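Working notes for the structural subgroup meeting. M.R. asked for a predicted model of this chain before we commit to crystallization trials. I am recording the input and output together here so anyone reviewing the notebook later can reproduce the run.

Input as submitted:
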Amino acid sequence: MSDLRMIEMSFAYERAAGVIESECVPQGSNCYGDMWFDLASATVDLTDEVLYLDSRRLLERSLENPQWVIILDEGEPLCEPEPGA
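Returned structure, recorded in token form:
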């Protein structure tokens, strides 16, 4: 991957994460200290930000409340689920 592409992706990640963090109400943290953000609390449309982070597997959703998300570190996407799991 080219250096320019990596810079573009980093800027896109920082923007998407920043918008979600600034527009959503925090809902506490998980056992690792990662903050949950309530997407339903936003007063702006977060469709693009959520789609971008989802496409890079950088959003973890709460099992109890699918509108709560944790933004993962850019270098640590969620693992693909095991087949049949």
